[in-house]
Amino acid sequence: MLCCMPGVSFVPALLVIWSSAAFIISYVIAVLAGHVEPLVPYISDTGTRPPESGIFGFMINMSALLAGITMYIRYLLIKKQNESSHFVSSSCNMFSLCIGLLGCAGMGIVATFQELSVPSVHDIGALVAFGSGVIYITFQSIISYKSCPKWNTYFMCHLRMAISLISCIAFIPMIIFASQISMTKIDWTPEEKDYTYHFVSAVCEWTVAFGFIFFFLTYIKDFQRFSLRILTEIHED
């Protein structure tokens, strides 16, 4: 099915499918193994203990790679569109790419340094991944508005901005409530101290994560307009 998609739209489509599968598969295995409670664990909690830890690490690293490729193609598309109608500065386009790639690096850290093994490094990676991701989709939403109406519809711009706002709003309590938790553990129960902080923070984390997925889903239509040949020519210039 992906091979039949026009242009380079298969890239964000593959990213969305793979990332969704990474979250869902790790969650299902962790719950069935009794490693986490079914009610909203942290995403990282579902990939801390074997066997789900190996699957989580591999799939999230692949998601980071696919996200980086998607962001680079998006950068090239904006560069190509700017050749006929200058709507955004090249420095803004480059900054968006760099902040996005920084988020991908954060994802790699999260996947490599597990929550219970190296919690401080893991937490830094998560902060970088989510923080950079929120900034990236916000910048891309603004760029989308600047490209209207030639390269984007206002409906698509409104949709992207709505996803960005929801992700930004969820990101703030995610950090605030996570900072109030006094212990590092993965098997939470409602009776425990700090459970409310954990629950609210985890809900916000899943909201932001799937906000990223839905945002990249909106790239599919844009990527249909361009072929790999065009992108290669841009890269060579």
TrEMBL record:
Residues 8-225 form the CWH43-like N-terminal domain. It is a multi-pass membrane protein. One of its GO terms (cellular component) is lysosome. It holds the Pfam family Frag1. It is found in: Endomembrane system. Its main location: membrane. GO terms for biological process: regulation of autophagy. The chain crosses the membrane at residues 12-34, 54-73, 94-113, 125-145, 157-177, 197-220. Keywords: Membrane, Transmembrane, Transmembrane helix. PANTHER family: DNA DAMAGE-REGULATED AUTOPHAGY MODULATOR PROTEIN 1 (PTHR21324:SF11), FASTING-INDUCIBLE INTEGRAL MEMBRANE PROTEIN TM6P1-RELATED (PTHR21324). Belongs to the DRAM/TMEM150 family. This is DRAM1 protein. It comes from Bucco capensis. The gene is Dram1.
